[in-house]
Amino acid sequence: MAQKPSIPKGTRDFSPLEVEKRTYIIEIIKQQFKLFGFQPIETPSFENSDTLMGKYGEEGDRLIFKILNSGDYLSKIDDALYTAKDSLKMTSKISEKALRYDLTVPFARYVVQHQNEIDFPFKRYQIQPVWRADRPQKGRFREFYQCDADVVGSNSLLQEVEFIQLYDRIFTQLGLDGVTIKMNNRKILSGIAEVIGASDKLIDFTVALDKLDKIGEAGVKKEMMEKGISETTIQKVQPLFNFEGTNDEKIAQLKKLLQDSEEGSAGVEELAYITSFIKTMPLTTATLTLDVTLARGLNYYTGAIFEVAAPDTVKMGSVGGGGRYDDLTGIFGLKNISGVGVSFGLDRIYLVLEELGLFPQTVTATSKALFINFGDKESLYALQTIERLRVEGITVELYPDSAKMKKQMGYADKRSIPFVILAGTKEIEGENFTVKNMQSGVQETLNFSELKAILTQ
Amino acid sequence: MAQKPSIPKGTRDFSPLEVEKRTYIIEIIKQQFKLFGFQPIETPSFENSDTLMGKYGEEGDRLIFKILNSGDYLSKIDDALYTAKDSLKMTSKISEKALRYDLTVPFARYVVQHQNEIDFPFKRYQIQPVWRADRPQKGRFREFYQCDADVVGSNSLLQEVEFIQLYDRIFTQLGLDGVTIKMNNRKILSGIAEVIGASDKLIDFTVALDKLDKIGEAGVKKEMMEKGISETTIQKVQPLFNFEGTNDEKIAQLKKLLQDSEEGSAGVEELAYITSFIKTMPLTTATLTLDVTLARGLNYYTGAIFEVAAPDTVKMGSVGGGGRYDDLTGIFGLKNISGVGVSFGLDRIYLVLEELGLFPQTVTATSKALFINFGDKESLYALQTIERLRVEGITVELYPDSAKMKKQMGYADKRSIPFVILAGTKEIEGENFTVKNMQSGVQETLNFSELKAILTQ
């Protein structure tokens, strides 16, 4: 019996229309990456296991897909280890390669490996799939694309300014007006923890604060107290719970709040620098907002932290994120290379554009016209015309078999091909074409240049 | 100590320029696939193992990369099996997924799985990486792209005609004039074996004949005799060893040679049909040649067989191949769906274009101009100008740090950025820009529209 075909859970087939829509998004992202001076690189789908393992924490290690060694991989395992039958210990013996888990670690590896060929600062973008053995659920897949742009080798805050502009331009180009670019700074968070005397509880404190819009002020305070942060301490940061106003007003408040923390003040300076540039060069459709509750990626970001929220009209998590990390390549032996980067969430952007009906009508996976197949002689006339149209960049097809008219028309209809061209003996003699508009049903006889004109409309 | 970074053997990092060159080729292929009415699909990088295993022969099974199950994968293995320590038997117990080996089997799986959403005939293209645990060697990699276009659900030979045109158009667009599209037909080969009474030795016979251009007439005859084909038998196909002339002349010879074989005659008819169309619609730069020694993919092709040879000026194997297979989807339970398709060899095409210097100069991974960074005030002026240029589609960068002039100029030079823009206090006052042509060394002062003009040249 034949197999019933299926695909692994958490993976997807993409139909022609889905590929076209994804390509539409990717091309806009790519085009803007390039305009901003980022250069593409690509890395292998799988890396040596020791490149990836230990870089994403214990949970990450577990979620990395491992590739089984080829050949008689069991023969090299000594009996003691084999007898233990311990999956965890066995893995490193029977698997030396693993599918990449993100684009950041492979990028760090690339930079170190090719440091002599690279001119720093190096602005690179990378758009490739990554794989995670996560439990699949709505909107979470085991294979998905990441779209990353990073700069390594420059401490300049102008990079942050340009990344904010880049977010604005990409979402504007996608027609997704009204996104909010939230910005915070790791130094602000450290500074707050410092001035309230809770530096040792930085993570607990920020994780709780991060939930403000979900569980509210009372909820956050309750969680902080549960983590052992005293009520008096929490009192000191009361302004953070009603942190409103313009970016300038927020900066003024923070300046006061953090005046006794050197690190915190440095963070405020950074925010002030970045926002002053953006004030002079206003964003097109996005809004930049300081959000001190933002604690995304706190374990590796050391400076700016970004998160982009979709317009309020759609219920969707962040559609982008990013930040600065001071020591990207240290793990591979190249010290003191600062990096800053952003990432775009392809799958979520897709869902948002779909929900808001923002994919242009021109994004289709169909041809502009179908020639009806009346037989060999007529097909030759059709193919000759098709060749001339293709040279003009017009996508036209000939129905491959001289099937019943009804079948051929039905095919055009089902595939939403807008025009059907009938060219039989009469048309061949007259060197013209009977063209049917499939939507209006109107049929007219046209010569080649009229045909070309109607198909390029 | 830090790890010395490396990548698995047989895989590659692609630098910015390499990505741009690969993208250049892929975009031309894609554009023509679309113009010819093919629609894109994408399938997951890994499939369920039973989708792939057993489809490529024993050797193929061995070369498929298997993915280790997650979690405590050893716990489910019964003791008897475990004690045997047999890698081959163990594999199916600890691995349920595998990286795709080609695009054809996943496509067949896709067609069957989505048959109710597909309007047949279905013209699809697919450009994605595949993985093979082959021994890496020059030009052979463990991860590489395939670029396939196939039609399923039509027996019409007009598909073959269009594929020949497609080959011609793509190689013409790539500037690779003078490729030879070799065409044969499985029915011709069967017919020959039939008329010489060696049907049972079809594979041996064709495998030997396929080597004609490598080992010559004597060599082929020797190999045939070693395989037990008699000298008298070989005598009967003497014309094949000096098979020359126009396609029409070759067809006339074949017609005579195969007159007593029904299958062979059908093959001749097919060749005659296809070549008659191509004669009426001449190819642009490619040449179509009948080549009865061509036996590529004989184990699955059932009709036309194609192979594209690079121009004689470069030493390179085939840069494309394809053919018709009568029962693509049968393995997954959908019978009688004929398919015909072609494939483009990205890596080899890349090498040929490189060798012949055919990549256009416009294929670069650099920016059009670099603004020198003189400090914050000047950077603002630069960024405002850069924003206006980017809107016009011009790639311009600001050097991120106000480093020494020599360092900034050196960066532009190393990255082959053609123009450097100097905008200091004087330029800001005059609302203009000092622009240095990095190649000629010429420096001039331009206003914005003059700057725009020079950067769009």
Brief write-up:
The structure is a homodimer of 457-residue chains. With 457 residues, chain A is an alpha+beta fold. In chain A, 43% of the residues lie in helices and 17% in strands.
CATH architecture of the largest domain in chain A: 2-Layer Sandwich
Overall pLDDT metric of chain A:
94
Write out the CATH superfamily name of the largest domain in chain A: Bira Bifunctional Protein, Domain 2
Largest interface: A-B, 110 and 110 residues
Taken as a percent bin, the fraction of beta residues of chain A is 15-25%
What is the CATH class of the largest domain in chain A? Alpha Beta
Number of helices of chain A: 19
How would you write the strand order of the largest sheet of chain A? Answer: 1-5-6-11-10-9-7-8
Range of helix content of chain A: 40-55%
User: What does the radius of gyration of chain A come to?
Assistant: 29 Å
Oligomer: homodimer
Shape call of chain A: globular
Distance between the termini of chain A: 50 Å
Class derived from helix and strand content of chain A: alpha+beta
Number of E-type strands of chain A: 16
The tally of structural domains of chain A comes to: 3
CATH fold node name of the largest domain in chain A: BirA Bifunctional Protein, domain 2
Major β-sheet annotation of chain A: 8 strands, mixed
Poorly predicted runs of 5 or more residues of chain A: none
